Amino acid sequence: MLRIVWNQYFVWLAIASFLISITAGAQESLTPSSVSAILQQAVQFQLDDFHHRGWGLQYRVHRTDQKEDSIREVIETEDGNISRTLTFKGRPLTTEEESGEFARLHALTPEDVRKRRQKSESSDKYGIELMKTLPKAMIFTPVTGQPQLPNHPRQQIVLDYAPDPAFHPGSTTQSLLMGIAGRIWIDAETHHLTRIEVRIIQNLNLMFGILARVYQGGTVSYEQKPVSLTHDAYTEIKMDVKLRELMVHVAPYQQTLSVTDIQFLPTAPSVRDAVNTLLAIPSIKP
After folding, report:
1. Could you read off the pLDDT of 191-207 as tens digits, one per residue?
2. What's the whole-model pTM score?
């Protein structure tokens, strides 16, 4: 998958995270001080959750795009995420492929996992900047009729959002916010995000368009559900965008990540324990 797509995930997840905090007080009759308190708590919660420590998740993710149709089992360990591939290109692994996957997992060390996480987190600073900037960058409007999502146990707050023309970005990262708009659904009781829809309303340029350009008209959606009293996990991400990477060529890009079998782990396992769990999962047969 194009590296820029993963980088964009952090942007969209960051947007989703902070929109939760902004909308928490938007529909309630609250004093300015109580709204401020809610925002401070919600922002800190989202920042803590963004790079959480101590707890983890185990889940199965099905990824489909133009080049891949795969299923992986993922475990969040105390040192970072590790995974085992169960299917590849829409089929179970061959005996040789599975042997290679087992050898890779047996050889995995905590240091390997930590290095990969550190590399990933170094790029997440852009998403964190977006989180902190969104309160000043967007205008939020209640949606007429408050259309509810199906199969959700509680009432949702529904808001449209769009860039505030009075906002002046202080960096190229913040300027990305001027190119998106969309709709969000928030659990009215817990103020946690249920779904966010992002529309790209003007071209998004990374590194002045040299690294990549995401063209106007693309869409991204993100859904999540609670996995504990205070934590959520994503259940689906859909992207339908048109990209130009490294000034090479323009190509459509559609991808869906669907997550099932989510387990909340109150204590994140060690890399070795997670490897043993992954190796014990039955192989998917033809």
Report:
1. 777 888 999 999 988 76
2. 0.79
What distance lies between CA 37 and its chain's CA centroid? 25
Q: Give the chain's residues under pLDDT 50.
A: 1-40, 42
Q: What is the pLDDT of residues 54-102, one digit of tens each?
A: 899 999 999 999 888 999 999 999 999 999 999 999 999 999 999 999 9
Distances (CA, A) of 171 to 133, 174, 208, 243: 10, 5, 12, 22
Name the nearest CA neighbour of 11 among 170, 125, 163. Answer: 125
Q: Cα–Cα distances in Å, from 194 out to 26, 44, 188? A: 16, 19, 10
Query: Beta-strand (E) ranges in 81-231?
Result: 81-88, 91-92, 138-142, 156-163, 180-187, 193-200, 204-206, 212-214, 219-226
The Cα 28–Cα 191 span in angstroms is 11
Question: Rounded to an integer, what distance in angstroms lies between the CA atom of residue 283 and that of residue 99?
Answer: 11
Predicted confidence at residue 210, as pLDDT, reads: 54
What are 52's two structure tokens?
């959480």
In DSSP terms, which residues pair with 243 in a beta bridge? 214, 251
Say how many CA atoms lie within 13 Å of 237 toward its Cβ.
19
